[in-house]
Amino acid sequence: MKGLLSFFLFCCTLVSAQIKGVVVNSKGAPIPYVNIWVENENVGTTSDENGAFQINIATSKTVIFSSVGFEIKRTVVKENEKVMLQEAVYQLDEVAATKRKQDKELEIGDAKKIHHKQLSGDKPWIYGKLFEYNSEYSDTPYIKKIIFFSDSEKKGAKLKIRLFEFNDTLPTNDILTEDLIVTVGKGMKKNEIDISKYNLKFPEKGIVIGLEWLIIEENKYVFEYKDIQTKKRVRNEYYAPSLVVNYSKEEHSFDYSGGKWKRKKIFQTDKTDKPWYNNVMMPAINLILSN
Fold this sequence. Notes:
Distance between the termini: 76 Å
Number of helices: 1
Radius of gyration: 21 Å
Helix content: under 10%
Order of helices and strands: HEEEEEEEEEEEEEEEEEEEEEEE
Largest sheet: 7 strands, antiparallel
Strand content: 35-45%
């Protein structure tokens, strides 16, 4: 019996362990706010401002590291390992060195402020919305601002905005070469982020705007709810901010988890009493275009 117990404890040790490490670039400098997932599993985290991370996994699992400006890396992580990410090589379009007028604006998207929201829990999801190209944008071809609605449980919560190319099916490469970290206020807020400095033209294949939750200490809060089955109050640690969601008949919503993108499908049902029935839930995001 003693031998069997020892074997059981050994197996449990193999199943899961708290692995700590740090993410660095090719020069050894730490990389903050890296999106980290166990491949194909609902286990993930974010590196902190010093590149440090910890994740509870089996040591044999493949971990996926993703960050703006770096190539995606898949690796098995050892305790106290320095995980080095290789800088990505971008093929950027040449931007004419002329001053833009910016005397025209066009807001696109149907996002609006409603009291329905998506919580991150404790995972670094990326929640994305596709904007397709339209020839009507020819007079205002540049993306000037990103607008999104949040409903944060904490003041000063941070999240990362990512802009992705679209390959007709799923989001692919980052368009920006640097992190775009934004801070939101507590409660329901309309956030307008000016990105005009990037001189980014609207891609003809469309663009996916991603909102990435950061699983960092300053975003942590306690979420309390009543368990339906046990009728007891449950307290869990979650991470702000929650994001306002809208509902659509178009399947233009995506999420990134487990190291891969998934396209959200319409929730088909005969019921009609909930707004998400026979619709797709997507983040409340609009864009402002200019010339």
